[in-house]
Amino acid sequence: KEFLVEISGTTVTITCPLPDENIDWEITGTKTDFKEKKYIIEDHDSSPANVSCSAGDSKYEMYLNARVCTNCEELDTLAVIGIVTADLLITFGVLILVYYFSKDRKGRASASAGSRPRGQKMQRPPPVPNPDYEPIRKGQREVYAGLESRGF
Known about the structure:
Layout (H helix, E strand, L loop, with lengths): L3 E5 L2 E5 L8 E4 L2 E2 L6 E4 L7 E7 L2 E7 L12 H39 L37
Antiparallel strand pairs: 1-2, 2-5, 3-4, 3-6, 6-7
């Protein structure tokens, strides 16, 4: 048999697996005055604790390491599925809108460019060479003689 642990906000409810109603609870070595089957810890601080419940000669022990928070909200599976589905539908809707608006814009741009009269195409002259990168001429080899590769 196992303990049943329920967490809601900062409240932790532990149900002992013993069938008796007169149960002794012990938390981290300290006995409590609580005698019912369900032990409720209000404002739990998320610190680990050793919990045990006993009745007569039967004793059950458990290590409790429950993380709690004050502003947490529980979501059931149906709510999570609904949120993910709605997000996907909205994303696909925006994707389709962008596709159709961009498709129409391409068609209009090509039609307006084709109807405009064009001038005669003129060829551009080649760019003026940069004087810093002039080719080496036969008579100027001595200027670049210091740039030869040296053997080590």
